[in-house]
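Board notes (copied after class):
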Amino acid sequence: VLHFANAKAVLSPEGVQAVRKVAESLKEYKGEYKLVVSGHTSSIGSSALNKSLAKRRADAVVKVLVDAGIPAASITSEGVGPDRPIADNKTKAGQAKNRRVEIDVKAEGQNIEVRKTETEVQEGTSEKK
């Protein structure tokens, strides 16, 4: 889970490092896998613009994965927008948690280790719509 500042689709240095770490782990995996990179936003602003922002966030993560050596054909990205919140959008803290990108790894194989990595919540100005 990678968190973003309001109205931003730019990964923090910590976020870039976290994505590269995911890529390095995946390159060591010998089985087949697919990645689903989903971008999310808070509910501030219109749904259409939030979905566009969410897609840009997901695409920023995909770029780092591909640049780190993950085949683009193994990655699907989507802009979910505000449709799957993980926190209450009525609070600033909840809104910040909802501004995120998730990388889901769908792997085939016997010995799959489940890991969760999460970057710090990013602060910033309100989402522009």
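Comment from the instructor: Confidence is low (pLDDT under 50) at residues 125-129. The helical segments are 13-28, 47-67, 92-98.
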